[in-house]
Every structure is written in C-alpha cells, then in structure tokens.
Design goal:
This protein is mainly α. 78% of the residues lie in helices and 0% in strands. The longest helix has 41 residues.
Length: 289
C-alpha cells in the first residue's frame, strides 16, 4: 500500500503541466461527457454478467432468480469492499442464499467463478503484458510470475476431474461460466476505453489492446486490500499508460474513476436497489394472484 501510494504521489508531484490537464476538462465536448455516461451505464451490464455467472454456478444446487442473483452479487460486493483481498465476497453471497443445505457447495462454486474470472484475465493479458514489458527496463521477474500464474491455472484445470462430483462443474456450466467471465472482462475493457476518451486521451487501438489487458493483469496479480485499491490501480495506470503518451494525473484520474464507478457506486446504491426490488416483488405477486 505504501509503495503504491508513494509511487503515485511522486509521479503527481513531479508532473509540471497541470494547466494543460485542467484545460482538457474545461474544453470537454459533448462526446467526451457522453463517453463518461456510457462508462456509467455499463455498470448494470457489468453486474448482470456477474449475476448471470453466479446464477449459472448455482443452477444445479439452488436455482435463484435474476433479481435474487443480482441482490446476492451486490451484497457480496459490499462485503468485499470492507474485507482484505475481497475475501468477504463469496461468503456474503452464500449467507444471502438463506439456506444451509447447499452452503458448502455454493461456496466452492463461488470460488470456481472467481478462479475462472482470474484465468480469463491471465490468459487474455499474458501476451499483451509480455509485449509491454519488452519496452521497459523491468527485470524478468514479472514475466516469470505471469508464466507461473498461467501454469498454476492450467494445473488446476488438469486436477479438476479429481474433485467430488457434488462440487464439480458440468461441461455446460464450465463453458457458460467462461462465456460470462469473458463478457464481464470485455465490459471492463470498454469502460476503461470510454473513460480514456472522456479524459481526452487519444491512444491508438493497437496500443489499447496491449495496455488495457496488461493493466488488468498487473492489478489482479498485485496483493491488495481495500484501502490500497485506488492507489494500486492509479499507480499501474500511470506506469502503463505513461508509455503511450498519457500524463500521470490523467491516467490516475481514469483509473480512480473506473474504481469509483465499479466499486464505490454499487456499494452506495446497494440499499436503494435492493429496496426497489423488494417493493416491486409484492406488487408483482399481487398482480399474478
């Protein structure tokens, strides 16, 4: 945490063109603000993908509706925000199920969902990260860590068939879970690209295809706690996007804005969203009766 914030503060203090940085936002046009709006509007899609994945994982244990799945994902997001390494996410979802019959299996399924999302991030970001590291003076240790992460993921996949059937995903579940994980990952990439557009950063599509997957990979592999999250994301954004012409304040602002939209905003809206769902459910039951 200290290293992340120290690096971020150092880059912000050594930046000497804040006048141009402020001018970017004072001259922001309609398309830039539309890009920010699009970034915010992708938040429901982000959580819909995660809720669909969670619902699919529970389909053969404890089927839930889309509303309840979204409610559980939001509850897990709130718990993840206040626990180190987001450890409270899956237990909170399981507690929100309201049943102990399949709680252990549901917990394992939640771990599968998180592991599959991590595998998607590692696989999609591995080669972009290698391409990025070739342009830096960093030692080969990060590359070795990436290879190790990929090997461990493949090893876990090979050991999958040795698990008990009660906590094993079917082939169909595994495929659909991967599909929803890829969809959510794509949502993150589009959100970040839109946020860069809002900030007036013109980075070529080819460079975005390297920078954004590498960014999400490094953020995922960095040990994290809630209080350090914004600093770690801002530091990696400054470090990676700086190679493609982005200044430090803008890169940090974009990363923190994405973190605010995808992390703080759902926590702030958890109670209004769930209360709205709870109010609509009795009305719909009454209409059906």
């Amino acid at each position: 945490m200290l290293a992340a914030y120290a690096y971020l503060i150092y880059r912000l203090l050594t930046f000497d063109d804040y006048a141009s940085f402020a001018a970017v936002f004072s001259r922001a046009d309609f398309l830039q603000w539309t890009a920010l709006l699009g970034c915010v509007l992708l938040l429901p899609l982000n959580f819909f993908c995660e809720a669909s994945k969670w619902r699919q994982l529970l389909s053969e244990l404890h089927p839930v509706s889309y509303r309840e799945a979204i409610r559980q994902v939001l509850y897990g997001q709130m718990a993840a925000f206040i626990t180190p390494y987001r450890l409270g996410d899956i237990p909170a979802r399981v507690l929100r199920l309201g049943t102990r019959e399949h709680s252990k299996q549901a917990f394992v399924m939640g771990l599968y969902g998180g592991l599959i999302q991590t595998v998607v991030i590692v696989v999609c970001g591995f080669f972009p990260a290698i391409l990025f590291l070739r342009h830096t003076s960093l030692p080969y240790l990060p590359q070795i860590a990436l290879v190790a992460a990929l090997v461990l993921a493949l090893f876990g996949a090979l050991q999958y068939k040795s698990l008990p059937r009660s906590i094993r995903l079917s082939g169909r579940q595994l495929l659909i879970t991967f599909a929803w994980s890829v969809a959510r990952y794509g949502c993150w990439l589009v959100q970040f690209a839109l946020a860069l557009s809002w900030a007036g950063q013109s980075i070529s599509f080819a460079n975005l295809c390297v920078a954004l997957p590498a960014y999400y990979l490094f953020v995922t592999l960095t040990p994290n706690i809630p209080v350090a999250d914004a600093g770690i994301r801002g530091s990696w954004a400054v470090f990676i996007l700086g190679f493609y012409g982005s200044d430090a304040p803008t890169a940090a602002l974009v990363a923190v804005a994405i973190w605010f939209i995808n992390t703080l905003l759902p926590v702030a809206l958890y109670f209004p969203w769930t209360k709205l769902i709870a109010l609509r459910e009795p009305n719909e039951r009454h209409n059906r009766d």
